[in-house]
Amino acid sequence: MKSQIMYVLLMFLLSISSSNKISDTSVPTITSSAHITPSESKLENNKSLAMEAYKTVLQNKIEFYSIETKKKVYLNDFLTNNEIYGTTSKINHFAVLDMDGDKIPEVVLGLTVDENPNFVEVLHYMNSEVYGYFFGNDQLSDLKTDGTFRWLSGGLTYNGYGKLRFQTNSCEIDNLAYHESSATNESSTTFAIAYYINNKLVTEDSYKAFVKEEDAKRDVTWYEFSQENISTVTSKTR
Question: Helix 227-236 vs helix 38-58: angle between axes, to the nearest 10 degrees?
Answer without folding.
Answer: 180
